[in-house]
Amino acid sequence: MKTAALIVAAGQGTRAGGPIPKQYAPVGGRPVLAWTIAAFQEHPAVHLVQVVIAAPDAKAYAAAVSGLGPKLLPAVNGGSTRQASVRAGLLALASHQPDQVLIHDAVRAFVSADTISRVLARLADSAAAVAAVALTDTLKRSGPDGLVVETLDRANLWRAQTPQAFRFADIRAAHDAAAGAGHAATDDAAIAEWAGLAVTLVPDSAENTKITTAEDLAMAERRVAAAARDVRTGSGFDVHRLVAGDHVWLCGVRIPHSQGLEGHSDADVALHALTDALLGCIGDGDIGVHFPDSDPRWKGAASHIFLAEAGRRVREAGGRISNVDVTLLCEAPRIGPYREAMRARVAAILGIEISRVGVKATTTEGLGFLGRKEGIAALAGATVVLGCPAGGT
Ligand code: MG
């Protein structure tokens, strides 16, 4: 099941009072849109992220997404309305043939991984699923003079938020039909309703708000600052023995070598140390607890499975990976020529920006078992921010 996220960032609103559209305004030193993209990019169920932008924002967009990872497709330009922009995004996604799509407002930067999971899950038994919040305020209708005309019954009334999830073919057909008929709507669920699709409401957190005013931006800044207080660090260490062979796996990269590493899995000592460092950040055991070498499932396993699972556990615990760093201790092979490939691989496995991954190497000056080339060791560190808004890597 291939799932795409379509993020609508083509609005030119500057209601927040700044000189730039609000989706490019910084929160916690990072553009609102970058937080939003990261929330979807880091979600394990999301495979592709397509952003729709306004053509004049191309430069601001390029700066905002600099370093964001491999799931992000090149942006496409939107239309004169939100509806036209969504349609442009759906058209761009069509060549990637996603099975389902999550459509999301660029300025809802606080969407949680849990909300994304729950909205997607409802597609199993519904044609469309929409994050929504039941109304708690009393609703009044006013006349043009501002005087109350009536008080409305709020029972069964909801505020529709995003993400809104659809089967890709359904929402694409619905948007095409609406455009053909000149039918206008303010969200995609309304397009789906108009096309006769059943739409299920998925109760969402009221924290998944739009950042549209200067007041919203100030509140977002306070939320990020509060969340960033619980910073965790973890460490990891691993050694594998060098034996006869013709290659080693280090940081998920296959390196031709005059020896091989011995282990139950592929013996990627660097990924094992990194896995332990991440698990250490949330006090969740170690690699041996989750992937015991007595379990035949992990015989010869590619170690990216272990690191990806540690990353998933961190996110499940409400954590965001701030950075990971590994030091390889060996006389050979030389790491320098593979360093960038290693950083890119680790970044891809964890769904984080490459700038958040450090790979270093040192020898032990010929001393000890490492110096005698009897094995390769790796030391790793990781930093995780707990309770951060989604996307707060
Ligand atoms: Mg190991």
Strand arrangement in the largest pleated sheet:
5-4-1-6-10-7-11
Shape: elongated
Give the overall average pLDDT: 93
Helix/strand structural class: alpha/beta
Biggest pleated-sheet summary? 7 strands, mixed
Q: In terms of per-residue confidence, which ranges show pLDDT below 50 for 5 or more consecutive residues? A: none
- Percentage of residues assigned to helices: 25-40%
Query: With helices defined by DSSP (H or I, 4 residues minimum), what is the helix count?
Result: 12
Our count of domains comes out at: 2
Radius of gyration: 24 Å
C-alpha end-to-end distance:
26 Å
Order of helices and strands: EEEHEHEHEHEEEEHHEHEEEEHHHEHEHE
What's the CATH architecture of the largest domain? Answer: Alpha-Beta Complex
State which percent range the strand residues make up. Answer: 25-35%
Tell me how many strands there are: 18
CATH topology of the largest domain: Spore Coat Polysaccharide Biosynthesis Protein SpsA, Chain A
Bound molecules: magnesium ion
Overall CATH class of the largest domain: Alpha Beta
State the CATH superfamily name of the largest domain.
Spore Coat Polysaccharide Biosynthesis Protein SpsA, Chain A
